[in-house]
Amino acid sequence: MCGIVGHLGPQNSVDVVLEGLKRLEYRGYDSAGVSFISSDNNLKIYKKKGKIQNLIDELADKEIHARSSIGHTRWATHGGVTDNNAHPHVCEDMGIAMVHNGIIENAGELREFLIGEGVKFKSETDSETFLGLLIYNVKQGKEIKEAVIESFKKIEGFSAFVVLNKETSEIFSIKNGAPLVCGMNEVNSEVLVSSDPYALAGIANKIYFPEDQVLCHLSAGNANLLNFYELDGSKSTRYISKSQSMDHNPAEKGEFEHFMLKEIYEQPELIRSLTQFYFQGEGKESLEQAVDLPRTNLHVTACGTAYYAGLVIKDFFEQINRIPCRPEVASEFRYRDPILNKDDLALFISQSGETADTLAAQELCKKTGMKTLSIVNTEGSTLFRDCNVNLLIRAGMEIGVASTKAFTQQVLTGRTLSAVIANGGMDDNLKNSLATKYSLLAERIEELLERSDEIRTVAGEIYRKQGFFYTGRGVYFPIALEGALKLKEIAYVHAEGYAAGELKHGPIALIDEEKVNVALVGPELYEKTVSNIQEIKARKGIIVVVGPQGKKDLEEIADYYIPINFDGLEELSPLYINVVNQLLAYHIAKFLGTDIDKPRNLAKSVTVE
Ligand code: F6R
Hints:
By secondary structure, the protein is an alpha/beta fold. The chain has three domains: about 5-245, Glutamine Phosphoribosylpyrophosphate, subunit 1, domain 1 (4-Layer Sandwich); about 260-450, Rossmann fold (3-Layer(aba) Sandwich), CATH 3.40.50.10490; about 450-590, Rossmann fold, CATH 3.40.50. About 35% of the residues lie in helices and about 20% in strands. It is built from 19 helices and 24 strands. It has an eight-stranded antiparallel beta sheet, with helices on one face. Helix 3 (about 105-115) runs parallel beside helix 4 and helix 4 packs across helix 5 (about 145-155). The radius of gyration is 26 Å and the shape is globular. The chain binds fructose -6-phosphate. Fructose -6-phosphate binds next to helix 9 and helix 16.
C-alpha cells in the first residue's frame, strides 16, 4: 500500500528518496511523487501516475541538488489514479508539501469547512484536507510545528503524515495507527522518515519507532537532528530506538533472480538460529513471559498466510498441550462479537505487525482485559507495541510480497512456545531436543532446495492447466490452503486448498483433464488420502503427489511424484512439504512470466480493512 520516504542531509536528498521509494515498490502502488527544496530555494514538485520509473524519467534531465525531500507512492483509495491525485500535495505560496498514508475518515466535513474558509483544493483525495488544515492554521498565524499539531488533532482515522517546510528546510511527521519510522546516520548527519524500515536499511544506523501522536521533527545543521514532541509541544520519550547494522542490506537479491526465491533459500539458516534466540539470546525473557500468560482457551487471529500458520499452531496447542484453540481470520473476528473471557489468551500472528484487521482484533481483545500475545516479525510495529508479550520470529526483512520464510518462522515460534509449556518451562534438555529437531528440518529443506530443478520440471509440465486443487488431511490441510494461496497470488491461476476428504462434497464436479490435484500425503491417514487421490484420478484429473518416498502405489497413481523423506520430522513435516509448494508456485509463476516479487493488485502490508 502507500509508501512514504523523507530525507534530510548533505547527500542529494532526491536520490535517497527515490531509492527509498523504489524499495517500497513491493508494497504495491499506482503513482509516485516527490517534493524537494532546490538549491535556489524553491519548493519543487513532480508526480506521475504509474511506475516510479516514470517519475525518474521525468527528473532525468534536471539538475537537482536538494538537501531535503519527501516522496510518496500512492495506492488509490479516494480519487482516481491521476498525476494530480498523486502525492505530495503542495501549497507553493506557503512553501509547504505533504504526503499521507491511511484514510482521513472525516475528510468530507473538513473539506466543507475549509472551502468555507477560502481554502482551494486541487485534487479529489482525502489526503489534501490535511494540507488544507495546514494552510488554514498557518493563515491563523501559527508556526509550522504548531500548525502540524493542530491540523493533526482534527483528523479522524488511521493515518501517517509527513510535511516538508521550505522556510526552515525541516520535516515533520506524525501518525495515528499507521506505520512510521525515523532513522539517523550520525556520521553523515542524515535523518530520514519512512512508512517502512526497509527504506532506511543500509542508510541509517539508528532506527526510531515513535508511538501514536508523537510529533517527529527532522532538522539539519544542529546537534539534534531528530526530536520528538508531545501534542502539547513538550519533549516526548514515547519512542523505541535501536541500532541497525549497516553491513546487511536486505535490498540486495544477491545471486537470486527474485527476493521470493532468496527468502525461500534463507529458511534453513533462520530455522537453525531460532532455539538459540529463545533459549540463550534476547528472546528468552519474552518466551518466559509468554509461558506465564493465562490460557484457558487460545484465540488465534491473523490474516492470509499468517492465519494459515495459526492453523498449524492450533494443532500443536490442541494435540500437544490440549489447550482449546479458536483460530479465526481477523476481518471476521473483529465484527463477530466473539465470546472472550479474561482467562483466555489472544494470540495474533503477523509478519508486518501492521495489518489493519489484525490490529483491530487485538484492540478488541485488549478492551476485554484479556492478555494479548503476538508472534510477529517486525520489532517496533504497531502490533509489537500494543501486545502484552511479543514473540519475534526473527525472519529478517521479507520483501517478496508472497510470504514464505515468515510462515515457517511463525509456525516454529508457535511450536517453541507449545514445547516450553508442555515441558513446564525452559531447560537445556528441551533446548537440545528442539535444536536437534529444527536442525533436521533445516537439513531436509536444504536437500529439497537442491531438488529445485526437479520441481521446476513438474511446473513446466502443468503450468498451462486451468485450475489447481491442493489437498491434504490433518496437519497437511492448512498447508494445502497455504500452497493454493501462494500459487494464486504469484501465478494468477485459480487454486483452492481443500481437506482431502471434502472434495467429493462438491468441488469434484470441477475435475477434468484440465485440473491439477496437488495431493499432500503424509504418513498419517495414508490409505485414506490415497483413496481420495483415486477419486480425482478416476475423473481424469492430473495428479501431482508430494508424499513419502519409496511408495509404489503413489508412483502408480501420480502423473508426477515428488517423493520426500519424512523420517524423524514428526509434527514439523508440514513445514517441509510447504517448501515444495513454495518452489512449485515460484516455478509455475516463472513459466507464466508474472511479476513474482510484486504481484498485481497485492500489497505487502495491508493497512486498510
Ligand atoms: C500471502 C501474504 C498475505 C499476508 C497477510 C497478513 O503471501 O503475504 O496473505 O500473510 O496479508 O500479513 P501480515 O502477516 O503482515 O499480518
